[in-house]
């Protein structure tokens, strides 16, 4: 079937992380919808919660110990069509920015770290805060990509705070304000019947902010995630590790002379002009050189 071939092609490409994340979420959603439909027709829908329990993150520790994989699978699991729609739209919009500026591997790392941070804060809150312990006792679970997506939104806002999106009815809005609204809604959710989701979103937002700040300081928080991913890729594909050899100092070539045209870090005035251009004409109006300058400035 062409659909199967398209999915296989999407996962075979190494520069397709955003579409792969979107596809995993869609495939899990379709699987659960079809499973529930089949169980409903066969009269076994009463057992569907047992199926869902293999994906959602439980709030009580005994259940988590029996289902440790749910620390990640919950972030790819949705039940309602609007829930997955809003998450995937945000993932597509903001993930495209992270992918363009930081690359595919860092996008995946950020998604995974955001999911783990959301899960960790959720579990700590439900098991340590007295007013939330009844939720854990009742077995209230967590599911959805919101924590991971919030990490990506906050990372994009931290990296490019003045980048603008054209929003329906609102016009051009800078993403730093979008991120602020997302945080505010997460805090409101804690008081309005969804404390688990709100707390998980805040955990993801913290990771998104720290991820970019540490990256700008020269530290990549995503390297452990990338190392684990590389290990499993080698395990599945059988590819050997790449070995890097270092020459001795005596055999090392002379240091290359820096060319006059070598790229230098742009000044603040240049960056301000570029950001003003984005706010007036959008990111697509930038030249390739301006995009590169903005990227180099984000690494300072």
Automatic annotation (TrEMBL):
UniProt entry tagged with the keyword Protease: yes
Q: Which keywords accompany this UniProt record?
A: Hydrolase, Membrane, Protease, Transmembrane, Transmembrane helix
UniProt KW Transmembrane keyword: yes
Where does the protein end up?
Answer: Membrane
The record's section on Gene3D superfamilies has: Rhomboid-like
Residue ranges of every copy of the Peptidase S54 rhomboid domain listed in the record: 67-211
Protein's membrane topology: Multi-pass membrane protein
Q: Where would I find the DUF6576 domain in this sequence?
A: 268-300
**Entry-linked SUPFAM superfamilies:** Rhomboid-like
One GO molecular function term of this record is: serine-type endopeptidase activity
Q: Which domain of life is it from?
A: Bacteria
Q: Name one GO biological process term.
A: proteolysis
Q: Main site of residence?
A: membrane
User: What GO CC annotations are associated with the protein?
Assistant: membrane
The record's InterPro entries line, in alphabetical order, gives: DUF6576, Peptidase_S54_rhomboid_dom, Rhomboid-like_sf, Rhomboid_protease_S54
The record's listing under Pfam families reads:
DUF6576, Rhomboid
Report which residue ranges the record marks as coiled coil. none
Q: Where are the transmembrane segments?
A: 21-48, 80-98, 110-129, 135-160, 167-190, 196-212
* Similarity comment: family membership: Belongs to the peptidase S54 family.
This chain belongs to which protein, by name? Rhomboid family intramembrane serine protease
* Organism of this sequence: Hymenobacter rigui
């Amino acid at each position: 079937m062409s659909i199967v071939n398209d999915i296989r092609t999407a996962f075979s490409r190494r520069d397709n992380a955003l579409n792969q994340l979107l596809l995993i979420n869609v495939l899990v959603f379709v699987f659960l919808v079809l499973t529930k439909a089949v169980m409903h027709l066969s009269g076994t829908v009463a057992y569907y919660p047992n199926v869902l329990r293999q994906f959602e993150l439980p709030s009580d520790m005994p259940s988590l110990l029996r289902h440790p994989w749910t620390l990640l699978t919950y972030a790819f699991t949705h039940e309602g069509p609007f829930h997955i729609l809003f998450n995937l739209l945000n993932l597509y919009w903001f993930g495209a920015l992270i992918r363009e500026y930081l690359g595919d591997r860092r996008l995946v790392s950020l998604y995974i770290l955001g999911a783990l941070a959301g899960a960790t804060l959720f579990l700590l809150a439900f098991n340590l805060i007295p007013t939330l312990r009844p939720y854990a006792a009742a077995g209230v679970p967590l599911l959805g990509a919101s924590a991971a997506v919030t990490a990506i939104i906050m990372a994009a806002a931290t990296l490019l705070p003045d980048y603008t999106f054209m929003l329906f009815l609102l016009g051009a809005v800078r993403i730093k304000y979008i991120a602020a609204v997302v945080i505010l809604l997460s805090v409101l959710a804690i008081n309005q019947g969804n404390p688990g989701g709100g707390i998980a979103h805040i955990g993801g937002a913290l990771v998104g902010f720290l991820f970019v700040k540490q990256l700008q300081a020269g530290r990549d928080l995503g390297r452990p995630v990338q190392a684990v991913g590389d290990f499993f890729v080698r395990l599945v594909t059988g590819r050997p590790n790449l070995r890097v050899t270092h020459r001795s100092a005596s055999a090392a070539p002379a240091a290359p002379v820096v060319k006059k045209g070598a790229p230098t870090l742009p000044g603040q005035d240049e960056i301000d002009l570029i950001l003003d251009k984005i706010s007036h004409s959008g990111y697509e109006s930038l030249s390739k050189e301006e995009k590169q300058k903005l990227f180099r400035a984000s690494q300072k």
